[in-house]
Design goal:
The chain has eleven helices and ten strands. The chain is of the alpha+beta class.
Length: about 270
């Protein structure tokens, strides 16, 4: 199975049973956590943060300003806000400050000397579906897929409090963006039959001056992440076959604080 869908709604994509990179990252914790998330027993995340991120993607990546609207300058808990949301049920309703931030982010993005060029001639949010060699169905939906004579590449747009190299390097590990990058590249290559040479992150700060940085994923990091993806997919396959979705070891274990905690105690003396 290989499929590439240019126009697919976000809800249809997320509702498809194929394994996404988010699913795979849940499996990093344990097979039991993966199963619980896949069964819809774990909340997706903050709706407010998700809505703001979705609106930013629509405005900046697709230059679509019709999917969201500025709400009244009142608390989300008030009757006025709730009535406004009902009146605009087909749109994402943002606080005035959130709406203004997205406008500022848009201006900063397209005022950057390279950000718009990196995404030019690319196709936003194309959905890719394939069958892994284990037999599992897998899927990917890159923010931008760019076909180029110099080699195809993928662009992932992220918003953050800080776009500095030090902070984003920590964020990559915290949210395992490396897993997503390797997973996307593998699936896109499988579906298109084309080599994906690079993966870029465009990271933009959510507050003025809405500074942004562009980062290329390191080859060694991608190789390690790819190996991790293959291992996780094999573990999911084994769990599917056995029906066992293990979490943590059942034995009683000795535990100690991490070594850095002792070093911190010494520094505090």
């Amino acid at each position: 199975m290989k499929k590439q869908i240019e126009k697919m709604t976000s809800s249809d994509y997320h509702g498809h049973k194929a394994i996404s990179s988010t699913d795979l990252k849940k499996a990093l914790r344990s097979m039991g956590h993966y199963r619980a998330y896949k069964d819809g027993l774990v909340p997706f995340g903050s709706k407010v943060a998700f809505d703001v991120g979705t609106a930013a993607h629509s405005a900046i990546l697709e230059q679509d300003f019709t999917s969201y609207v500025k709400g009244p300058d009142v608390s989300r808990a008030t009757k006025k806000w709730k009535e406004f949301v009902i009146e605009h049920e087909d749109k994402i309703v943002l606080k005035p400050s959130e709406y203004d931030h997205i406008r500022g982010m848009y201006d900063s993005f397209y005022g950057h000397p390279k950000a718009a060029k990196v995404t030019s001639n690319g196709r936003p949010e194309v959905s890719f579906f394939a069958q892994h060699e284990t037999g599992l169905l897998v899927k990917a939906r890159p923010d931008f897929y760019v076909q180029s004579g110099d080699g195809d590449y993928i662009v992932d747009y992220k918003t953050a409090l800080s776009a500095s190299p030090e902070d984003f390097a920590r964020t990559i590990y915290k949210y395992r963006y490396d897993i997503s990058a390797a997973y996307y590249m593998r699936i896109v290559e499988q579906v298109t039959g084309r080599k994906v040479r690079d993966f870029f992150w465009i990271v933009q700060e959510k507050e003025a001056p809405y500074a942004l940085s562009i980062y290329r994923a390191d080859e060694e990091m991608l190789a390690a992440a790819h190996a991790k993806c293959e291992k996780l997919l094999a573990q999911i396959t084994n769990s599917e076959s056995s029906g066992e979705w293990k979490t943590y070891p059942t034995d009683i274990c000795n535990i100690d604080m991490p070594s850095w905690a002792y070093a911190k105690d010494v520094d505090d003396e």
